[in-house]
Design goal:
Helices cover about 35% and strands about 20% of the residues. It is α/β, with parallel strands linked by helices. An eight-stranded mixed beta sheet has the order 6-7-5-4-8-9-11-10, sandwiched between helices. It has a three-stranded antiparallel beta sheet with strand order 1-2-3, covered by helices on one side. β4, α3 and β5 form a beta-alpha-beta unit. It binds S-adenosylmethionine. The site of S-adenosylmethionine (SAM) has 22 residues, from α3, β5 and α7.
């Protein structure tokens, strides 16, 4: 298997390959592999081919944690028949996993047809290409995502990227990558959404503290589809219409009794029960008012 100082290609139990980060001691999409996980969590759950087929105007995807680009390339391949233009806005603070993955494209398998686009993205942080009948514009914002949300996206002289219809949220786990799972991060992210543009954010974690963070940020939150690794994940959205199984009052009761439910307010991993202030904010969330 190929190894660099920071990454390694690993063979998963089902025979597919994925990238392993030595620094974080985490494998990207560790159980069913990168393509199957992206298909379950994003393509099928959001019904992206159908959504794009019925969409007019540009469809916008924010890809948080570009990593080895398995999520983006799986979404591109699955939606190739769509004719609406697609804009992908990727975020990561390093290109190293993408470079490493591209060097190992043959074992990973999912780069086929997109090697040239990925090479241009790495070189110029921007690429535009024809993909089936549609035009794809793919841009990369290289930098610390929480800081980009608080400063650079809004302070930059150029326009911030357009509000997303879908967000692929794929950081390392909250215990190893707490800066990407704080409540302030989700509150800042929510401010970039357009209330008139329905937007869904699926992510692989089902942790109570993540769900509470999303609810307090303004999202509606539901149980997300199984992926093969997890029997349940999480889906958040700025409208209840995009959520088929919203968290209910029974979930709220369990959150009230949980020892790990209070959001991380700082980028330091810790587990704590809900404070009375958070409990009250949750109780007043429109999702639990019916
Ligand atoms: C699990 S990997 C993403 C895998 C990727 N979505 C794929 O399909 O291959 C998590 C990614 O989040 C990125 N990341 C972690 N912390 C970050 C931060 N503070 N700002 C931006 N990106 C970050 C890592 O560099 C890593 O590439």
């Amino acid at each position: 298997m190929q190894t660099s100082a920071d990454y390694r290609i690993v063979k998963l139990a089902n025979g597919t390959h994925s990238v392993h980060s030595l620094a974080h001691r985490e494998t990207f999409h560790p159980v069913i592999g990168p393509v199957a996980e992206a298909e379950a969590l994003y393509v099928k759950q959001l019904r992206l081919p159908e959504w794009m087929a019925n969409h007019t105007g540009e469809f916008v995807i924010w890809d948080v944690g570009l990593g080895a680009a398995a999520n983006v390339l799986t979404v591109l391949r699955a939606t190739r028949d769509a004719s609406c233009p697609l804009r992908i806005v990727s975020f990561d603070h390093t290109l190293a996993p993408l470079q490493f993955a591209l060097e190992n494209a043959a074992s990973l398998g999912y780069f086929t047809d997109y090697e040239a686009a990925v090479q241009r993205l790495i070189a110029d942080h921007n690429t535009s290409f024809a993909d089936g009948n549609r035009r794809v514009n793919w841009e990369l914002h290289l930098g610390d995502f929480p800081s980009l949300l608080t400063h650079r996206l809004t302070d930059s002289p150029t326009q911030p990227p357009p509000a997303p219809h879908a967000i692929l949220f794929d950081a390392f786990s909250p215990a190893k990558n707490p800066a990407m799972w704080t409540q302030p991060l989700f509150a800042n992210l929510f401010r970039f959404l357009d209330p008139a543009r329905p937007c869904a954010l699926p992510t692989y974690s089902r942790s109570t503290l993540l769900r509470v963070s999303l609810l307090l940020a303004g999202f509606y939150v539901g149980a997300g589809h199984a992926t093969g690794e997890k029997e349940e994940t999480t889906i958040a959205a700025n409208t209840l219409d995009l959520i088929s199984e919203p968290l209910d009052k029974k979930w709220l009761q369990r959150a009230n009794n949980s020892t790990s439910a209070e959001p991380m307010w700082e980028p330091v991993y810790r587990q704590a029960p809900l404070t009375s202030e958070t409990r009250e904010k949750l109780r007043q969330h429109p999702q639990f008012q019916a």
